[in-house]
Request: fold
Amino acid sequence: MNLTQLIETRRSIRKYEKKKVSEEDIQKLLEAVRWSPSWANTQCWEIIAVSDNKIREELKAVISPKNPATEAIVSAPVLFALCGKLGIAGYYKDKVTTKLGDWFMYDLGIATQSLVLTAREIGLGTVIIGSFDHNKAKKILSVPEGYEVASLICAGYPSQSPKPPKRKEVSEFIHYNRF
Ligand SMILES: Cc1cc2nc3c(=O)[nH]c(=O)nc-3n(C[C@H](O)[C@H](O)[C@H](O)COP(=O)(O)O)c2cc1C
Reply:
């Protein structure tokens, strides 16, 4: 698949086959993060690969049962917690450089897209989970001060093929010259 096809056919996958994901494939996902662009190449990302079932159950408990990805936290063959170091993306000599403050979420977003598209390329499905109690997750995962957990990303071989949710037309968001 070319890049356009990967972008257009990637879907959030919340149900997986029981099949194991090889260490080699996990490394491919992490390499994709590694080569992502970031603010002044600051690479604020830190990733926790969570295989421990007890920790996964604890994480599941900090996500609303109404969240459609709750079950995936325990059932996914691979679970990453994507964390970011604060105070480096968007900073120069410890001072924030733009009115937008810390850019860690931006850089983690780009890294996430690299990861999920690479996953798609090698036949894996993913779902990004952003809606949970971040403070509780931080505690469960022993994330130190100065870092935040931004998202959880589940991955595995898809056992579902959801229809693409409707997108806005380009004409609905493109502006020319001025907003
Ligand atoms: C930052 C972010 C946070 C998300 N959080 C959740 C979540 O908490 N639970 C969930 O089921 N899906 C979550 N998603 C997946 C979106 O719901 C999904 O990407 C969107 O509906 C479009 O569907 P698609 O990914 O299949 O194209 C999240 C996606 C992003 C980018």
Summary: Residues 90 and 98 are 7 Å apart (CA to CA).
